[in-house]
Design goal:
Layout (H helix, E strand, L loop, with lengths): L2 H23 L3 H7 L7 H10 L4
Helix pairs in contact: 1-2
Length: about 55
């Protein structure tokens, strides 16, 4: 796997874990991003990817 594919797989894994934690712990997106120590500069991207999981 090249670096871009590896990073994408890791991001997808983190997104799945965040979604699972949001459901299990009743966390908001912001709380989940805090718990997973997502850097401030990446939060907008993560929020958009999480939103895609809920919006048709």
């Amino acid at each position: 796997m090249n670096n871009a594919a590896t990073l994408e797989a890791l991001d997808s894994h983190v997104i799945r874990n965040i979604l699972r934690s949001m459901a299990n712990e009743h966390w908001s997106v912001a709380e989940a991003l805090d718990e997973y120590d997502i850097p401030e500069e990446l939060r907008e991207e993560y929020e958009a990817r999480i939103e895609e999981c809920f919006v048709d």
